[in-house]
Amino acid sequence: MSKNNELVDDLVAKLKRRQLVGSSTVSQATLKLLIVVISKSNWTTCNQLVTIVKTVGQRLVQANPTELAVGNIVRRVLHVIREEFHEAESTISHKNQASTSEFHAAPLTTSSSMYNLLGETGSTPDKNLQFPSSLRSNIIQEIREIKDELENIYDNIKNQASLQIHSNEIIMTIGRSKTVEEFLKMAAVKRKFQVLVAESAPSYSGQEMALELSKAGIETTVIPDSAVFAVMSRVNKVILGTHAVLANGGLVAISGTHMMAAAAKHHSIPVVVCTGLYKLSPLYPYDEDTFNVQFNPDSVLGFEEGDLIDKVTVTNPYYDYVSPEFVNLFITNQGGHPPSYLYRLIVENYDPNDHSFDL
Amino acid sequence: MDPKKKTVGFAPDNDVNTADLASPGSSNNSSTVGSPVSALGNTPDIGTHSVTFSATTAEPRTINAAGSRSSYEPMKSSYEEQWGLTDRTSSSSSSAGKAHKLASPREGSGFPNSNKDQAAGSNKKDTKGKRNSASSPGNPGTSSTGKESGSGKASGLCIQPNVGASSKDSPQSGGTASAGSTGPGSAGGKPDGSQKPSAPSQKSMTKAERRELQEKQKAEKAARVSAGLPASGKKAAQIVSQPNSGFSPNPSKSLATSFPGVEAEKAIAAAESTSQAKRRERLTKEIGLFAHLDPPKFANTASAPKDLHPAVVNVGLQMAQFKICGANARCVATLNAFRKAIQDYQTPPNNTLSRHMQTYLNPHISYLVTCRPMAVSMGNAIRYLKYEIGKNLELPDEDARSLFLEKIDNFIRDRITMADQVITSLGLQKIQDGDVILTYARSSVVEGLLLAAHAKGIKFKVIVVDSRPRFEGKQLLRALANAGVPCTYVLLTAIGHVMREVSKVILGAHSLLSNGALYSRAGTAVVAMSAHERKIPVIVCCETYKFSDRVQLDSFVQNEIGNPDELVNDQYNNYGHSSTRYHDSVRGSSSSTAAATNGTKGSGGVLSDWKELRDLKLLNLLYDLTPSEFVTVVITEVGLIPCTSVPVILREFLPMMQQ
User: Fold this and answer.
1) Which of B 166-185 lie inside 8 A of A, CB atoms?
2) Which residues form a coiled coil (chain A) (predicted)?
């Protein structure tokens, strides 16, 4: 247990210090940690294990609340745990009750599915149930499948590229997103198109993106953020990466995304968001700034501006909230979905009891 | 393309600062020889040029004549030539020391070398052709010289020995020959045959020698380019060789007349292939959608006509470098410069001032256009001035002069200064206590309005939104902060974040078009759109003299492209801190200074070597078009109007404007 604590402390510290940033890296680190926690700690019942994982999850989430992917991964793991226990339970009770039960709906999903409306809503867990020893390895096995999914996310997303991009398109994007980069590079194998990349000041990550794309042989043009509206009318598609997707289909994405999405909407240009499902969070943005974070304003107005710094307020929000009506399509590793479908993906991937980590 | 050449970019030594502007030619060292500026005051151009004149004093006038002729060529300077131009500043200083005959670009322009030709590996053919052209001027258009050129490789490479030797004593035969040839019937310089015996073939040269040769050729090419001649040595020589026939529109054709036979065909093919390659190269860095717009222009007096008034030259340079920037400032500066020009104007014999004034001003106007595309405000002001001149043709000279000067003063007073005051007083009604006002970049009118509102004692907050690459909002921020207005400063990307607390958006304008569209600094449209989306009123401050009868539906058909290298200045270069290009940031100041002087190479910026990458382009768009639906009201000196009323105002006030 103490070893586990050490590992958890380590990851918490890394998250706090922002040594680990980026949805992809933090989610993989979280998953790795949870595998160790589940395999090393002592538990016998479902509640025990859920409590253990939730405690760890709570600490991780609090370490950096803006990295929503951490919470998402913990919820995915909790969901897997609940499902595995449920399955084990039903097989045991099935054996015990043998042929006594006339009607027993096979629980396909845990809750709020239409399949369960008419069937039994699951029996309360029997405390005396003895779970088979294979349960632990089953859970670990399932979690490893999540891990595989994380590793193959880019492949699954980029394979849809040629379905979305036609020849001679002009595509606009902003900032740097690994997912979008892979997506466009894959599309470039089969199609010839142009990309306009907005820089996204003050991080200017769009410049790196443009560099990578141009090295892959894609005709790329860097535009300053100010030119987004001006050139939007000739763009065929806006393809965005995102930091997180919220339950309503809204995005938490690099600053400037809102501006670009709004310009696209004004010109009726479709906005496509490429994202792995692990970025899908069951949380709602009750306030637009809930998931935003203010960064060091030095890159907006440097200290060499002298006494000017004392007189003015300088803000440097890192993320933008983009409301779901700006987005036309989400391309996830499970295929393309409209924003209105996301609630369904949330129901399938997360248990409603896990939306908050309060015990 | 040579990497060094490309990355030089906006080297600061090419940057004419205000001190230099007193004699604008001096900083543009060799390129301005023979240009009108230095012709006006030859004395400041000492340094490298003094050698030139001592070497070629025999025919300085003819050099100028050739120069002024070439300066009337269309300003179709491609990117590449511009890089070549900037490169000249670094390389010519070294080569000037080495080869004293090189200093004049006119001589250099006849000098048959092209760096690219050599790189293309078509040495033999090209150099032969070049030698032809170098030697032919003494006897232009004869076929005998053309045949002589067939004498072989060694003779074709006759220029190289002195490069290899690099001694100050060995004069450049080619250079002298062509320099002499600039004046028809001149002595023709030394016969280049004198150099032949010592000519080593290029293969036998050492690496260092070859490198030196390349450097020299580059410098010469740059000088040629700056002289307004084609970059290719052959063509340049061709033009110089026919000073009286002017610039031939089809150089390859005229080449054919001077070199008949196979050699000539080869030369033509070479010329065409290089020009094609050059065009391709230029095209690849051009943004397809904006290919119809002029490439960014650079401060350069070399191609200006010779009899410009220094004040206008000055203003043109300052505008080219964005030292004077903003519709009002540019218009006032132009009018003031024209005012000085009219003041100093001397009526030529057998002419009257008012009749000759238009012809006198026209080259000034076209010069300003070559410096930077004309602002709508400037266009309107100049049109007004021309109208006044055309109306008063019969006035005696001194009366006309004082009338024009008065009209200019009145225009500035009525249409700009007073208009701004009226706009300010009208705008004050729209600013209330507790307002949060968002503005974008910097507009002189908006700045005046906000300062006046603060002076009036209204308690309000300002959010200044700014954007790359110019960060003009910083000037506004500084002005407001110094006045004590509570300010917030954000970049354009954060517009969605700050827009929530805003109660009014006040914007400046470059121009208002007849369809109600607002043509203003790039990024204005995004700001107006975000405000519109949240139902926040967008107020535009614009004097009526900026109204244009142009109609535009998108930001593509008419726009201006800035220097793409401004986008390269990323966090390693200046971290977006500076409002000027060459400002050194605190961090890594030494490296960025070095970067500014030797080009951006090695500065570590993400895009620093963007020119090396075939598929990477940068777009620095200066303006954008805001649709009229985003603009709630326009404050003008004639009142608060919807922006769709622009054509009405234009109709009503056109007579007033031209009275």
Assistant:
1) none
2) 136-163
Confidence band for B64, pLDDT divided at 50, 70 and 90? very low
Residues B624 and A229: beta-carbon distance below 8 Å: yes
Q: Which residues of chain A carry a pLDDT beneath 70?
A: 1-2, 96-130, 359
The amino acid sitting at B3 is P
Which residue is it, tokens 């170098």? B134
Indicate whether A147 and A170 sit together in one domain. Answer: no
Domains of chain B: 30-284 (no CATH), 310-420 (1.20.120.420)
Note whether residue A354 is domain-resident.
no
Q: State whether B617 and A219 contact (CB < 8 Å).
A: yes
Residue with structure tokens 């070439």? Answer: B70
**Could you please report the per-residue DSSP string of A71-108?**
HHHHHHHHHHHHHHHHHHHHHHHHHHHTT--S-----S
> B-contacting residues of A 294-353, CB under 8 Å?
298-305, 308, 311-317, 320-321
C-beta atoms of B490 and A300 within 8 A: yes
Q: Chain B partners of A217 at a C-beta cutoff of 8 Å?
A: 615
Q: Give the gyration radius of chain B's Cα atoms.
A: 28
What residue in B sits closest to A254 (Cα-Cα)? B493
CB B343 within 8 A of CB B357: no
Q: Quick one: A86 and A213 in the same domain?
A: no
Place B483 in a pLDDT band, splitting at 50, 70 and 90.
Answer: very high
Interface touch A262/B559, C-beta < 8 Å: no
The total of structural domains in chain A comes to 2
Residue A115 lies in a domain: yes
The amino acid sitting at B60 is: P
Whether residues A262 and B478 touch (CB distance < 8 A) is answered with no
Report if residue A288 sits inside a domain. yes
Cβ–Cβ under 8 Å, residues B78 and B282 = yes
CA-closest candidate to residue A53, choices A160, A120, A124, A139: A139
Residues A144 and A159 in one domain: no
For residue A344, give the amino acid letter. R
> Taking phi first (over 0 means left), then psi (-120 to 50 degrees means alpha), and beta for anything else, what does residue B280 get?
alpha
Window 616-645 of B: residues touching A by CB (8 A cutoff) are: 616-621, 623-625
DSSP string, A161-222: HHHH--TT-EEEEES--HHHHHHHHHHHHH---EEEEE--TTTTHHHHHHHHHHHTT-EEEE
What letter represents residue B448's amino acid? G
Contact assignment for A220 to B496 by CB distance below 8 Å: no
Task: State the CATH number of the domain containing residue A46.
Answer: 1.20.120.420
**CB-closest option in B477, B496, B529 to A312:** B477
Could you report the predicted ipTM of this complex, rounded to two decimals?
Answer: 0.89
- Domain shared by A76 and A161, yes or no: no
Within the 511-540 window of chain B, which residues sit less than 8 Å (CB to CB) from chain A?
A: 521-523, 525-526, 529-530, 533
Q: Average per-residue pLDDT in chain B?
A: 67
Domain of residue A282, residue span: 155-349
User: Is A302–B490 a contact, with Cβ atoms under 8 angstroms apart?
Assistant: no
Highest mean pLDDT among A26-30, B61-65, B91-95, B210-214: A26-30
Q: Is B207 on the interface with A (CB under 8 A)?
A: no
Is B530 in contact with A262 (Cβ distance < 8 A)? Answer: yes
Q: Do A169 and A213 belong to one domain?
A: yes
Q: Which chain B residue is nearest to residue A326, measuring alpha carbons?
A: B533
Rg for chain A, CA atoms, rounded: 23
Rounded Cα distance between B569 and B593, Å, is 12
Looking at the structure, tell me whether residues A224 and A115 fall in a common domain: no
Task: State which residue of chain B sits closest to A197, comparing Cα positions.
Answer: B618
B526/A263 CB distance under 8 A: yes
Q: The tokens of B599 are what? A: 């080009």
Q: Which region holds residue A204: left if phi is over 0, alpha if psi is between -120 and 50, else beta?
A: left
